[in-house]
Amino acid sequence: MEPINIQEAIHRKMHHIQNPSKMFISDSELRAVWEEYHLSAIFPAQRWTYEQWQQVRKEYLKVLSILIWINWMPLAENFRSIFFMQPGRSDANLPFTMEKLSFLAGSALTFFQFQFAFLPVVIQDKEEMYVHNLEPIERLPFIQEARDIGSGGFGDVTKVVIAPRCLLSKGLENPEAKAVACKSYRTDRSKDDFQKEVNNLNFLKEGLIQGGKRIMLHICAIVQGDNFMILLPLAELRDLDVFLRGGYIALDDTRDQRKVYDFSEEFPGMVPPNPLLHVALFNQLFEVASALVWLHEDLRILGSLDRYCAHMDLKPGNILITRDEKSQVGRWVISDFGISLFDKSTNRKALKVNSIRDVGPRLTSRAHQDEVIRGRGPYEPPEVSNKDVNGRKCDVWSFGCVLSDVLEFALGGTPSVDEFHSHRFCKDHLQNADDYFYQLKPSVKTIPRIRNESNTQVKKEVLDWFDTRSSPSSSPWVRDCIGLLKKMIVIDPVARASARDTMEGINGLMATHFRNGAILSQDVPGTAKTPPSRTPPPQVEIHLHSVPEVSLIEDQNSVPTIPEEGIIATVVVPPASDQSSTIAIAGLDPQECITLPSYGKAVDVAVSASGEHVALLYVGSARIYQIEKGVIAKPEIRLPSTTTWTRLCITAHYLAVYGIKKKTGDKEILMHDLRNTKREIMIPTSYEGRQVTQVHVSQREVVASLYGNCVLLTHLLLDSSEKLRLADDDTINQAAFGASGQWFLVWATGASSDCCYFWDVSIQPAVLHGTGRYHKDSAASTVFSIWPYTSVPACVLRESHGDTFVAQAFLSEPSLPRARQAIGLPDLLAACVLQDHSLLCVSKGKWIFSDREIHQLPLVQKGDDRRLVVSTSSGLGTAKTSVSQTARLVLVSTAGVLTVLICTRKGKVFKYQGR
């Protein structure tokens, strides 16, 4: 009776049992079934050793389950001789072909058909574009029937749920069922053409994944028969179009709407005239604008230096919204559908690189389409139908239309958005009616082939609406927003603002009018002015690292060292503005202690600049853990045993390890790409006869290797290098990349004076922006610590004995040494620059096990001179800890909340957070 019981248990776990062509059971669910049964009950008359039982459970469980499922009668007597004792008939060899199953005679066809129910596809989410090429008989691991959530011109969008442990992302399986969005197409193209089109997506995803944190990337593509599917992460709160409609989705070809969610429950209190709504909306608009700037200027496609990217279909429906506890209006991200690559010289689409949105229509028609598939609708710019367009300026027009809708929602909610749509829905002189933002000029009698400023104009209804909103009685922040819109919604693309202009315009508007969750330029009726709350207010959240993400440092004696306690520090801050210069922290309370898996005491420990990753160095290996939400162990990295490894540092994408070769005593530095653990980046240990002294990596994936008085810059994305040269008398002491990766700073010591160099490395070749030369205080050699400013070429420097001062680039008389304006900070352990207006410091007490004090010291500017001053009321709190000085410490400040992370070589992570 045991096989019958097992069959019933499998039946209970089988998904889609009523549909044999879809039914499946996952590997984890199958193993859970067998936890209740012992194999000996199936083979009562046979003697098996313990090792054989274990081998069957490990290597033959699926084959055995299939045989039980199809009621293979000779199971008990013949499984051992026909399967177990025969090579090539284990789970690893599934699926079996009909030819290979000939030994099963009359049961071969049944086995062949049902084996796929036990072999659901494991979806691969890789950094490159991954395509699953499946036979029609294979099973997708979707545990629920697909549910429609939208449709488009070339396919439908459904919600599907992937079974537990059937989605592999970055080497990790999904422990629970995972809901994703599935965009489906049908194609009549040949298989070769189909594969060629899909493979072109490879280039795009590899480029996008490098840094587009506000661009939602697709998971993979699936080809099954003549069906084509793209899986994407599911945005829980749908998109901006649904948000602006108050939680409703428009039904195609009708004026009807369907309720998707209760707006008041998902976004409590986020209705006008709540000033928090305005701040939250513009926070997200700033992030979208920042994503466009990155897409237009910083995204790099391998082998495509003469090209740029543009979205070409920016509209509320392509701005997705996910839940985010830090934002009252969710987290807005741009869908990667529609992103296209253009040649800079011609503004024509690069034909060999397609966007995901291009592939759908290309595969649903035999007609070859070389033109970019552009988004059509009210948010399109007038030149969108022209052959040669500037895709980046098209995006700015579309974003201006989106911004105008969001402004209306901020002022009057969904009714105001609807009223604005209705107001601009009108007929032109040719009796064509639409709600676009432009129309043909009255003098134009026929629809032109090319649209430009000679035949097209912004609709009078739109301009009238803008004028009404920017009347003298309107709030100053609204008038400034309309002023920005009038620079974006311009017919001539050349005169139209850029994405960077737009981002800086939104940032300037917020800096001028918004502060601490309120609007400075207007009073909210009926509200009393109260002191600032201790609760961190909503602020613009921009992730910037104030120190290089990877830094390996050694002194002149070839022994690797890191400044006292091996400290690295970072800060995540809002952009520089006139916001408050203090952080609302009453004290530091211990939040939690994380204990990482123990492999003994580590040789070294490192924490990433964001505080999300911890790396531990052991003899011969490195282990990495993600600690942002729980503890996730990354695959172990084995290190060559021919080297004694002593130091390591970690960033979001790279691990750098330093050591001394055992036989020769030579230095060795290895860099591992954490997105591809098989990729190692060798750093030259000598260059032009000089030994390497430091290695730094920026968030733009530029490596700076330091050798005496020169720097070798390696652009990892471009696979190119260049040399930066210092003055002959200067020797590099310390260096760092600035927050955004634009600036590279070098502090060098000379015979009679010291000098700080500032290079702009965002372009190639790098440009020396300026230098700042300073008098030496003493002839003694000293090791400096360096903390760059957030957005300007300046930094805070600290000598090992404690003197701390600001160094900057002087454009006037740069060669004349200046005096240092130093203050003494002898007990400083870690620091970082906050918003260019203050230095956050962690100091120690008199004893090794003393508490860590948190301070904030002002950074002031008088004329062109910047300096650090002592503040008598700078204390922010105390982080109580008893860890030794071998620990690593990181500061992270997000939206006014200060977090201190301390990690020990024993794998203990202490987290303290300001209230």
TrEMBL record:
Keywords: ATP-binding, Kinase, Nucleotide-binding, Transferase. Its EC number is 2.7.11.1. It comes from Heterodermia speciosa. PANTHER family: SERINE/THREONINE-PROTEIN KINASE NEK, SERINE_THREONINE-PROTEIN KINASE NEK2. GO terms for molecular function: ATP binding; protein serine/threonine kinase activity. Residues 143-510 form the Protein kinase domain. Coiled coil: none annotated. It comes from the Eukaryota. It holds the Pfam family Pkinase. The keyword Transferase applies. PROSITE patterns: PROTEIN_KINASE_DOM, PROTEIN_KINASE_ST. This is non-specific serine/threonine protein kinase. The keyword Transferase applies.
